[in-house]
Design brief:
Length: 413
């Protein structure tokens, strides 16, 4: 009983949480139904159907012929208008984007006989969407646009600055300390672009980042903590100005990401992206070209658990990188030092700490073990005690002739 109660409570919390963020991941469809003379038609049945999932929502127009669907999930829909004494009319391929406010008016014709009129969007109409009911400014980037662009790292944040009023920037440096002493040294998104942007002239920490309605903003650096795989994103929208009151927490911009979901038909994709140095030039200061190989691979799959009701969707992306090192010009022992003559080093002042003294044989390319000076077998100084250069040089000088042959001969002798 206890387990059942906990499960029921958890389910209720999930449902309530979903209702709270619903407005951030949906669009709105509203309109007015009239007859050919322009008079409103009351009590019209309006049904909207998701073409991929088969989900339906119904409303009835009021006495003024007005109707509204306040929360319509992102997707493509058919909308059907039916009223007694009028011909049924159907609008297909209605694209609803996140935070969209679509005004869909309809004029019904008086029925002469039982018939239905279907109005379909052309491809051009689907691509171009003009906001006529909302004052918020911003653009939508669809999945096809993202995946057809070659992005190094495959991060949607690399596309944010393509919209007007957005400039990549950061007001923080590596030694910035904010939020009760917390440092910004650690990147919140790993090696990917965290999305630090100046939107409408504001600082990067004035922006908001949402993934499926959840706040994913990272408060230290001002970017996003979650970057979904590119192939799992249905679309993202950047609101740059005049956005609705539900986003009143931010004075810069809103980046709203919507991930894909399953449909009544099983669908999926696979990808593999390869980068290497096959056509790269050699570093001018390096004797040979170093190697670099990166593989990014993965895929997506989605489908129905119960048709028209429950769906699943999953994605995976793996990144494997192997990179060599271009040494360039590095310091190596001189010919005198290779033969054991360390007089040039001995003339330098003492090395303050054993930790720093241990660096000297590494610079000289020697494999050494620091031997502590002793008197009658008893150590006279601990490792953290300052060592005089004369003692250290004496120890190194004994084994300098056995320097590994792999150490390069100096160019400047």
């Amino acid at each position: 009983m206890t387990t059942s109660r906990i499960a029921a409570q958890a389910g209720a919390i999930c449902l309530i949480g979903g209702a709270m963020v619903w407005g951030a991941v949906t669009g709105k469809v509203a309109g007015t139904v009239t007859d050919p003379s322009g008079a409103s038609v009351p009590m019209v049945s309006v049904k909207i159907t998701n073409t991929a999932q088969g989900n339906e929502m119904k409303v009835t127009a009021d006495e003024h012929g007005d109707f509204i669907f306040p929360s319509v999930p992102v997707g493509t829909y058919d909308i059907l208008f039916e009223a007694k004494g009028f011909r049924s009319e159907k609008r297909t391929a209605l694209v609803v984007d996140t935070n969209a406010d679509i005004q869909q008016n309809m004029t019904l014709q008086v029925a002469q006989q039982s018939q239905e009129l279907t109005v379909s969007d052309t491809a051009a109409d689907v691509e171009v969407h003009v906001e006529t009911a909302s004052t918020q400014m911003g653009d939508v980037v669809a999945a096809k646009t993202m995946t057809e662009v070659a992005l190094n790292g495959r991060s949607f944040t690399d596309l944010l600055a393509l919209q007007p009023g957005i400039v990549p920037m950061s007001t923080q440096t590596g030694d910035s300390v904010i939020m009760a002493g917390a440092s910004v040294q650690i990147a919140p998104s790993g090696g990917l672009n965290a999305g630090n942007q100046s939107i409408s002239g504001q600082r990067e920490d004035a922006n908001g980042y949402l993934v499926n309605g959840g706040d994913v903003k990272e408060l230290m650096n001002g970017g996003t903590t979650i970057i979904p795989d590119l192939d799992s994103i249905a679309e993202f929208r950047v609101l740059t100005n005049n956005f609705d009151a539900e986003f009143g927490n931010y004075s810069g911009g809103i980046v709203n990401v919507i991930t894909k979901s399953g449909a009544n038909q099983i669908h999926g994709s696979g990808f593999e992206f390869l980068r290497n140095t096959a056509l790269d030039a050699r570093n001018f200061f390096s004797p040979e070209r170093s190697f670099y190989r990166q593989n990014q691979f993965g895929g997506t799959v989605g489908g129905p658990i119960r048709k028209n009701k429950i769906f699943y969707f999953g994605d995976y992306q793996g990144t494997r990188s192997n990179q060599g090192i271009d040494t360039g010009l590095i310091a190596v022992p001189s010919l005198a030092e290779r033969s054991g003559d360390l007089s040039s080093v001995a003339s330098q002042p003492k090395i303050a700490r054993s930790r720093e003294a241990a660096k000297l044989p590494m610079i000289l390319g020697l494999v050494t073990t620091i031997i502590m000076p002793t008197i009658n077998g008893t150590a006279t100084m601990p490792l953290n005690t300052a060592l005089h250069t004369s003692i250290l040089i004496g120890l190194i000088g004994l084994i300098a002739p056995s320097a590994p042959s792999r150490v390069a001969t100096p160019i400047n002798k």
